[in-house]
Amino acid sequence: xxxxxxxxxxxxxxxxxxxxxxxxxxxxxxxxxxxxxxxxxxxxxxxxxxxxxxxxxxxxxxxxxxxxxxxxxxxxxxxxxxxxxxxxxxxxxxxxx
Amino acid sequence: xxxxxxxxxxxxxxxxxxxxxxxxxxx
Lengths: 97, 27
Fold this sequence. Notes:
Strand content of chain B: 35-45%
Number of helices of chain A: 2
Number of strands of chain B: 2
Structural class of chain B: alpha+beta
Helix content of chain A: 25-40%
Strand order of the largest sheet of chain A: 1-2-3
Oligomer: heterodimer
Largest interface: A-B, 18 and 15 residues
Strand order of the largest sheet of chain B: 1-2
């Protein structure tokens, strides 16, 4: 996937027991972001695979002042890419949880 | 810890903390 300069990873081991995940997002390459953002700070949040959307979380991060509106698409894409990967892992290897 | 900040937005909780040094070196 195209690099957005942002990194999203699991903040806790995925035990596949429910649809809620703990994710952590931070800026890996500040040059790739357009607006102001907080460097060296990781944002941890919960993401429900059944009810949440990456766009909605990105919007709330912009509203909370973590990122500029011009970067909300990159934030949403980073979250979407990671969530897609986690869903595939859950489908492929239930034992992987 | 004093380094962690909790922000609420539309019912969602964001926990802000420094990126671990080890992760910064990776990038």
